[in-house]
Design a protein that fits this description.
The chain is an alpha/beta fold. It is built from 9 helices and 12 strands.
Length: 289
């Protein structure tokens, strides 16, 4: 009988590498779902990051249309609704969503790198608001010669301000603050009050803010979405829900809820007075047949 030579036992470093490889393989094959799902998203509540005084979108009395959307999503998930309140100003995302104090921002413009966007659930535009019976009621673009020499209100640093500068409308413009605590100052409300008093001739506002405010308290004003501007920056935007970067499973769950409830979302937005556009931002959203 021929004896086989004994093999040398694997060295300690080699055995350690082998154990590590086996452990990694076991984890990868045994629990793929755990690897993809963030443990930061609450399973006991629908946790929303929101501004407590961002009328007409959200407020801490649940009076905004984003509050109603949050209520719808929470009900569909079968979870209680919880808010983390913080002014929509510098540091909002960092001190709410990124701090893991909440899990979703109900309204967030598509393309911002601070968050991961869900699929968009509506498209809207900046609007020109003027007296319905005044000389500017037929204006649909900032290039219109009728605006020359007029005093327009605009939020400083917003996209319409760049367009106004291009068409020579800034010398007489009245600027309103952008990044502020709306618990102590409300530039949109102030701008519409100035328009009705005659201090300005027209107001340029983000449609989901201006449209609902006009519907609520300014029946004599006309809201016109600015869809005809052909040069950057664009004045139409798709609005999504914002979640933390990398939370793809959570984003997909919200995408599913948005898809199944799109008609109900449209109804909430329409009732609030939000100007809804088609996906390309070229015209009004057509009602489903």
């Amino acid at each position: 009988m021929r004896l086989q030579p004994l093999k040398k036992p694997a060295s300690a470093p080699r055995r350690m590498r082998l154990h590590c490889l086996l452990a990694a393989f076991a984890l990868a094959t045994a629990a793929p779902a755990v690897a993809q799902t963030s443990d930061l998203v609450s399973t006991t509540a629908f946790r929303v990051c929101a501004d407590p005084a961002n009328v007409p979108m959200s407020d801490d009395n649940a009076g905004g249309f984003e509050n109603r959307i949050a209520e719808l999503m929470a009900a569909e998930l079968g979870l209680p609704l919880e808010y983390t309140w913080f002014p929509m100003a510098t540091g909002f995302v960092r001190k709410t969503l990124q701090a893991n104090a909440c899990d979703v921002i109900i309204g967030y413009a598509q393309g911002d790198e601070l968050v991961q966007n869900t699929n968009h659930y509506y498209t809207s535009a900046y609007v020109l608001i003027v007296p319905a019976d005044g000389p500017l009621a037929g204006v649909t673009t900032l290039a219109d010669a009728a605006l020359q020499g007029k005093r327009l209100g605009v939020i400083a640093g917003s996209p319409p301000a760049t367009q106004m500068a291009r068409f020579g409308l800034m010398p007489r413009a009245r600027g309103y603050h952008l990044m502020i605590d709306r618990r102590v100052e409300s530039p949109a409300v102030d701008m519409l009050a100035d328009l009705e008093s005659g201090a300005i001739d027209g107001a340029l506002l983000w449609g989901p803010i201006g449209g609902p405010l006009v519907r609520q308290a300014h029946p004599g004003l006309k809201v016109t979405p600015l869809l005809s501007e052909t040069t950057p920056p664009r004045l139409t935007y798709r609005i999504t829900m914002g979640v933390r970067q990398g939370e793809k499973v959570w984003a997909r769950k919200l995408n599913s809820l948005i898809r199944r409830n799109q008609d109900r979302l449209d109804a909430i937005l329409t009732e609030a007075g939000v100007p809804l556009l088609n996906d390309m931002g070229t015209g009004p959203l057509e009602a489903p047949k």
